[in-house]
Amino acid sequence: MPDRRYRLSEAADADLESLHEWGIDRFGLNAADRYHDRLIARLGQIS
Hints:
This protein is mainly α and 47 residues long. The protein contains 2 helices and no strands. The protein is flat.
């Protein structure tokens, strides 16, 4: 896991986990992982 310069609330972290699980069901593991990784990277860029 990358070193984060930000802290997510428990609710936001749970939302990201739910989004990842939804993405796995809808688009498959590889696509969901790519989306999740890019989303986390973007959060790091804007923090």
